[in-house]
Amino acid sequence: MRLSRVCGVALAAALATTAPSADQGQRSQPVRTDPGGLLHVEPTYFELAAQTGGDFYFWAPGEFAGSGLQIPLHDEPVLLAYGRLDSSRRSFDIPVESGVRTLTIFSGAQRKDRAVIVQPGGAVVADGTAGVKLQTFSHMTIATISSPAAGTWRIDFEGAGIYSVSAHLTASPQESAPQLVDFDFVEPGGRPGHEGLFPIHRELVKGESILCELEVGGATTAVQLSFVTGDNKPIATVPMDSEPGDSKDFLGRCVVPTVPFRVVLSGRDAMGQAFRRTDSPLRTPR
Length: 286
What we know:
Layout: E1 9-12, E2 17-21, E3 29-33, H1 43-52, E4 55-58, E5 76-84, E6 89-96, E7 102-118, E8 132-136, E9 140-146, E10 151-170, E11 179-189, E12 196-199, E13 209-217, E14 221-228, E15 234-238, E16 240-241, E17 249-255, E18 262-268, E19 274-278
Parallel strand pairs: 1-4
Antiparallel strand pairs: 2-3, 5-10, 6-10, 7-9, 7-10, 8-9, 11-12, 11-13, 13-17, 14-15, 14-18, 16-17, 18-19
């Protein structure tokens, strides 16, 4: 069974005043804020996006009508982070493997001061660069990059309040492209003579030790499974084993985190480049 990847889209708007802001190396835009300095958002819609791995659009009043927004088409999720900024700045690494056709990066917050995307070589992604489309709004920056260079990209994000940062890519069409095919928490079951491991059909319990099963597609090495929080902070790395000669199916014993979490697959592709895939749903144990 393939993993379900649900993409939710939410809109936010509020009455606001205007203050100047600029993205270094990118295009300046006015920032609209309410008297408290933060754009008003509807928490219910934000939580829906956070639970499903969708983009949450932080619209200032009247901005959407004249925005000319081109909604990016998402494919494989690499980075999903939703939360409240506990400091004015966060940086997120985005591994991009060989042969990727398109990379899309979304960032937004109740107050966006700066959103700068940096290429593997250290150069800032600027508006007008060949193969780059930047859409910059008062509270959001959206980048679509064709044929991105392999390596670790980065987004430096500064602001305040509730934020959302995500990165997706369209992988190489080659069969060797890494793929997160399936992940399940499993337990023994079946009738005599037909025993095996089956996905659990019950709630996860915080702190319980349970078997977990991972299926990977493509040509990969150094496969690693980890859990991260909803705002992409590390929780744990899970040792996974496979049968000799089997690079597709992995089994390990996981300890269910005590907080909502996502499943992350990482490793190396056929060319030795780092890759990463993030499972979209946020899992909440009881």
